[in-house]
Amino acid sequence: MKARIKWIEGTAMLGESGSGHGVVMDGPPDLGGRNLGVRPMEMLLLGMGGCTQFDVLLILRRARQQVTDCVVELEAERADTDPKVFTRIHAHFIVTGHALNERQVARAIQLSAEKYCSASIMLGASATVTHDYEIRDV
Question: Which InterPro entries does UniProt cross-reference here (predicted)?
Fold first, then answer.
């Protein structure tokens, strides 16, 4: 896997993935940024959310669950001093579908957290990562 970060100006930068996609990142105005994009640490949190959601949806599809929507709301705390690593991350899953099996949803989230989601397992080396969920029937 490769990535390339190109400085634009000030604290703005363009991240280019090895698959050819780009994303603008920037710092806050009080540090010279113009607020043109997400902060790099926000990208880490977004990456974890995307990684775990991908796993959960794949596992639920394989279990033939009729998922119509899945949202992962993440809340994180960082250390007060440098390096300001994540110290706590909580992922709240809102899984919507037709007659979803609660056991299957819980199992999918657990498998992602403990076995498949590289991002959350990696971030779990420095942060306490927790998960919970709610199921909405349509």
Answer: KH_dom-like_a/b, OsmC/Ohr_fam, OsmC/Ohrsf
Residue 117 and residue 108: Cα distance in Å, rounded?
A: 11
Q: Domain check: are 69 and 110 in the same one? A: yes
Residues 6+ apart with CB under 8 A from 92: 72, 73, 74, 75, 131, 132, 133, 134
The answer on 32 and 53 residing in a single domain is: no
109's tokens:
């989230």
The Cα–Cα gap between 114 and 24 comes to 31
**The model's pTM:** 0.93
Over residues 66-106, the pLDDT tens digits come to: 999 999 999 999 999 999 999 999 999 999 999 999 999 99
Range of the domain at 71: 40-137
Quick: pLDDT tens for 26-61.
999 999 999 999 999 999 999 999 999 999 999 999
